UniProtKB/TrEMBL annotation:
Residues 286-297 have a biased composition (Polar residues). SUPFAM superfamilies: Glutathione synthetase ATP-binding domain-like. Residues 54-73 have a biased composition (Acidic residues). This is D-alanine--D-alanine ligase C-terminal domain-containing protein. It holds the Pfam family Dala_Dala_lig_C. Residues 26-73, 286-366 are annotated as: Disordered. Residues 369-518 form the D-alanine--D-alanine ligase C-terminal domain. It comes from the Eukaryota.
Length: 530
């Protein structure tokens, strides 16, 4: 464990991601020397975007139109999700680090285009610090899918390759949690309760192809993009109640996913980017592995063949970016599951038989897909976790996302338009009544915290992350894991992120929290080089 003196002699570098994708009309990235008060390369208003007042308009506009344009802020969902309150969050993080006793703190802009050069520069600085007996830790805040034009996994791999301590998920946890179908297969293999689902790479031709899925899962269902964040591409229409709605929503969601990939593809191709595949010494390598699947079927969830262009995923198949080297991992997860079932008298449904995954052309390729699962109409919870199996996993008190009671039974979900209603890049804080964060029932806390920890460990969770959970009914404690989010939003002001609300609810002092993140980063790196 790093000593106290080592930690407080640590220099902190905060990575601030910039996009390579086109920005909305009328906006630009300001140079470092333009309207930059503190020299961090960020604009004071929103951290990246500013109205391009030098932009020449081909036609004159009326006074009324000019007024409307002055108030214009981008409504592009990806820009909003990535840029909302980013500078405030980074400045707040800097304040908490200063409160924790750190003095050498810098914000480092990084993009997919500059990632290699930036990390090489940080590596050189880290070596110089170590020569003087000091450390350098990077706050790795790049959480893009990279298809959205924002850096993510490639930065993590570069940091690992250069042996730089950093906060957040390692490359294995980062990637496995990026795809919802992949992470759900891992959860099922570890006997962590998550719903049966079917993944679609192509849309069914007609409703007849959906009959096996309907028989196995039943309505209502929800259609989700396989790779998404911040409720992107989730709408109220995502919840479906009929065969016709299901077929239509699969088609609409797939079309949207394919279009998103096309929009991002040209920007990435222009950069000639390729995945950083070289693993650093001590980093868990990715190899083919097959976990022993559950083979039993239950009356509620019978085995069923996949539809053409789809796969019913109910246990883990192999994932080329996730390797569990020992069967003891599965056994341990199953043991945790049995203990949880015994202690809290929770009903865990037996999972149906495994079916093969969709065939992708390459291991690195992210083929656009959507998946369908049962819509759970009960309560929704989110749990924050820090650490790993070696350092120890801390599970903070679980928060309930308490939806407006005026909402209907099938409207209580984080759909994009409702979730982001009222938020903008000028600091609008949205509709507080839509969803509030409350302390989950005390009697439910043990079960919720245990399943969150099981899910986190099943994915080899490390750094920090969030586990989203639902129940089937409002008054039944039968938690089902929806997903695990590595590198969830890191901020501390009320309503700025789920993490912020959980820490406030649990009365956790932010300086102590960031100190833990740094301690874990140093411990993880020391463990890797041994």
């Amino acid at each position: 464990m790093p000593s106290v003196s080592t930690i407080f002699q640590t220099s902190i570098r905060i990575l601030r991601s910039l996009p390579c994708r086109p920005l909305p009309p009328g906006f630009k990235i300001l140079p470092d020397d333009e309207d930059d008060d503190d020299g961090d390369g960020l604009t004071p208003s929103n951290g990246l975007l500013a109205i391009d007042t030098d932009k020449e308009e081909p036609d004159q506009v009326s006074t009324e139109e000019e007024e409307e344009e002055e108030d214009y802020m981008p409504t592009d969902p990806i820009t909003l999700c990535n840029e909302f309150d980013r500078t405030n969050a980074i400045n707040d993080l800097r304040r908490q680090l200063e409160r924790a006793g750190f003095t050498d703190i810098e914000v480092v802009p990084i993009s997919l285009r500059t990632a290699k050069a930036v990390v090489e520069r940080l590596s050189k600085e880290a070596r110089e610090k170590r020569r003087l007996g000091h450390e350098l830790v990077v706050f790795q805040l790049c959480d893009g899918t990279e298809l959205d034009g924002y850096p993510g996994l490639s930065v993590v791999r570069l940091l690992e390759k250069h042996g730089i301590p950093f906060t957040g998920a390692d490359s294995g946890f980062y990637r496995i949690s990026n795809s919802k179908p992949v992470l759900k297969r891992v959860l099922q293999a570890a006997n962590v309760n998550t719903s049966t689902f079917q993944e679609f790479l192509t849309a069914p031709k007609d409703t007849l192809e959906l009959e096996p899925l309907i028989a196995a899962i039943g309505f209502p269902m929800i259609v989700k993009p396989s790779i998404s964040y911040a409720s992107l591409n989730i709408t109220m229409a995502s919840v479906v109640h009929s065969r016709e709605q299901l077929l239509e929503q699969i088609k609409v969601s797939l079309d949207r996913a394919v279009q998103d990939n096309k929009d991002a593809g040209s920007a990435l191709a222009a950069l000639s980017l390729s995945p950083a595949s070289a693993a650093a010494p001590g980093v868990t390598t990715i190899s083919d592995a097959t976990l022993t699947p559950n083979t039993g079927a239950s009356p509620d969830h019978p085995s069923m063949p996949p539809s053409p262009g789809s796969v019913l995923s109910t246990d883990l198949a192999t994932d080329d970016d996730f390797s569990l080297s020992s069967s003891t991992t599965t056994a341990a997860a199953a043991h945790h599951h049995q203990q949880q079932h015994h202690q809290h008298h929770l009903h865990y449904r037996q999972q149906p038989q495994l079916q093969p995954e969709p065939q992708r052309q390459s291991k690195e390729e992210e083929v656009p897909s959507v998946f369908v699962e049962k819509f759970l109409a009960g309560r929704e919870f989110t749990a924050l976790l820090v650490g790993d199996e070696d350092w120890g996993v801390r599970v903070y008190p679980v928060a309930e996302r308490a939806f407006d009671p005026k909402l209907g039974r099938y409207e209580r979900l984080l759909a994009f338009d409702q979730y982001w209603d009222g938020y903008d890049l000028q600091g609008g804080q949205g509709n507080e009544d839509f969803c509030r964060y409350e302390y989950a029932r005390e009697t439910w806390q043990p079960a919720l915290q245990q399943i969150a920890k099981n899910a986190y460990l099943a994915l080899h969770g490390n750094g920090y992350g969030r586990v989203d959970i639902r129940t089937t009914e409002m008054d039944v404690c039968d938690p089902v894991v929806l997903e695990v989010n590595a590198n969830c939003g890191l901020s501390f002001e009320k309503d700025s992120s789920s993490m912020a609300n959980i820490l406030l609810m649990a009365q956790i002092d932010p300086p102590g929290f960031v100190h833990d993140l740094i301690e874990h980063a140093l411990h993880r790196q020391m463990h890797r080089v041994k």
